[in-house]
Amino acid sequence: MLGVAGLPAVVQFVLMLSLPESPSKVDEAKSILERIYPAEELEDEMNALKISVEAEKADEHALGDSMAQKLKGAFKNVVVRRGLYAGVTVQVAQQFSGINTVMYYSPTIVQFAGFASNKTAMALSLITSGLNAVGSIVSMTFVDRYGRRRMMIISMIGIIACLVVLTIIFSQVATHSPNIDHFESMHFALNASCSSYVRANDPTSWNCMSCLRAECGFCANGVNKYTPGACLALSKDIKDSCREKHRTWYKDGCPSRFGFLAVVFLGLYIISYSPGMGTVPWIVNSEIYPLRYRGIGGGIAAVANWVSNLIVSQTFLTLTKALGSAGTFLLFAVFCGIGLIFIFWFVPETKGLQFEEVEKLLQAGFRPEAFRKSSEETKVDKGKGKAKAEAETDTETKPQPSS
Q1: Does any domain span residue 62?
Q2: Is residue 290 part of a domain?
Q3: DSSP-assigned beta bridge partners for residue 179
Q4: Are residue 235 and residue 279 in the same domain, yes or no?
C-alpha cells in the first residue's frame, strides 16, 4: 500500500522539474507569463504585477519581522480581516461537508450500506475516488466561465441534497434490516450466541442493526440474506463457522435492498463536491488577500482546513457509533447548510478581477447582491429624510413676514 502511494509522488517530482523558477527580473517574468496569458492580456498583467510589487516593497517594512507582528498587522487590516472571513469560511466549509470521511472511510461506508465483502467495498470506493478526479477536471473548465462564488453555492446545494438523501437511505437500511432468528442464534454453535442478545429483556424486537450495535456479528440466512438470521459473538472462529455454512458474515452493516442507492448517492455527492467545494476554496484563497499578506492569509486558511480535517476524520467513527450512519450524514448536512449561509454572506466573486480590484471590493465591504440594492435604497431614503428634516428646521427658524 505504501509503495503504490509513492508512484504519484515520483510522477509529480518529474513534472515539477519542468516548472519555471519564480522570476526576479522583468524579462524573465514576461517570458513566463507569455506561456500562461494571451498576447492581448500580457501587458495588462505585467502592469498589474509591477504595481503590486511596488506596493509590496513600499509596505514591506510595515509588516514587521516576527510572525507575531505579521499576524497582528494582518488582523488589524480591515481588508485582510474580511479576506480571512471569506478564505477561512470556504476552507472550513470544505472539510465539514464530510468529504474526507467519504474518502478515508468509503469502504467502511459502503459496508454500512450492506456490502459485506471487503473486495466489493474497496472496488466501489475506488469509483468514488475516480469521480473526484474527474470533477476536478470539470472545475478547470467551468470555474472561469461561471465564477467561484456561484460554483461553490451550487456545489453546496448539491452536497446538502445528497447528504439528506443518504440520511434517508441509511435510516431505511437500519429500519428494514433482517430480524434475528432466536433458534439459530441459540443453537448455531456452542457458546456462539451474542451475550447481549441472550440477556436482552425482549430479544424478539432485535434485528440485525440491534445486533451490530451490541458489538456482535450477524450471520445471514443461508437461503435468503434478507430473511431472519443469527446474532452471534464477534470472533474469528465464529465468523469462519458462519462462512463454512455458505452464509454471509456482517459486522459493519446489514443486508439491505437499499444498499445500491447509497453507493449511487455517494457518487452523486462526489460529483457535486469536486467541481465546486473541492477546488474553488483553494482558488479563492489565492485571490482574496492583498499581495503582501497573501502568504499569511493563505497559511491561516490552510491551518483552518487541516484542523477541520483532523476534527472531522477523527470523530467520524465515533459519530457513527453514537448517532448511526443516518444521524452522522444528517449532521454533515446541517454543517453544510451553515457553510452555505456563510459563503453567501462573506465570500465575494473574484472572477476576472485584478488583485487591486479585489482589495477595493473588500475595503468597501462585501454584501450579497440580493441585499446590496435594498441597502443602497435605505441610504438614499435616509439621505432624503435628513434633507427633509433640515428643510423643515430651516422653515421653522426663518422669520415669518408680518401681515
Answers
A1: no
A2: yes
A3: 207
A4: no
As a whole number of angstroms, the distance between CA 186 and CA 239 comes to 16
- 276 with 63: CB under 8 angstroms? no
How many domains are contained in the chain? 2
Whether 190 and 235 have beta carbons less than 8 Å apart is answered as no
The C-alpha cell at 195 is: 451475550
In a domain, 156, yes or no: yes
Residues 330 and 265 reside in one and the same domain:
yes
Share of the chain above pLDDT 90, in %: 26
Same domain membership, residue 182 and residue 154: no
Query: Which of 53-67, 101-115, 223-237, 315-329 is the least confident region?
Result: 53-67
Determine contact, residues 74/82, Cβ cutoff 8 Å.
Answer: no
The contacts found for 370-375 with CB under 8 angstroms, 24 or more apart, are: none
By the 10 Å C-beta count (0-12 exposed, 13-18 middle, 19+ buried), 281 is classed as buried
Instruction: Please say whether the beta carbons of 102 and 319 come within 8 A.
Output: no
For residue 229, what are the β-bridge partners?
180
Do residues 170 and 185 both lie within one domain?
A: no
Domain extent for 215: 177-250
Question: Does one domain contain both 273 and 142?
Answer: yes
According to DSSP, residue 293 is labeled G
Residues 213 and 244 in one domain: yes
The whole-number pLDDT of residue 291 equals: 76
* 266 in the same domain as 169: yes
CA–CA distance, 176 with 62 (Å, rounded to integer): 65
Q: Are 90 and 308 in contact (CB under 8 A)?
A: no
**Whether 104 and 238 share a structural domain:** no
Q: Which residues face 249 on adjacent strands?
A: 219
Among 301, 280, 258, 242, which Cα is nearest to 80's? Answer: 301
Q: Which candidate, 121, 118, 174, 129, places its Cα nearest to that of 328?
A: 174
CA 35 to chain centroid, in Å, comes to 33
Dihedral of the alpha carbons of 23, 25, 31, 33, in degrees to the nearest 10:
60
Spell out the long-range contacts of 296-304 with Cβ–Cβ below 8 A and sequence spacing 24 or more. Answer: 296/70, 296/71, 296/74, 296/80, 297/74, 297/80, 297/83, 297/84, 297/87, 298/87, 300/74, 300/84, 300/87, 300/88, 301/84, 301/87, 301/88, 301/90, 301/91, 302/91, 304/88, 304/91, 304/92
The model's pLDDT over 5-29, given as tens digits with 9 standing for 90+, comes to 899 999 999 999 988 777 777 888 8
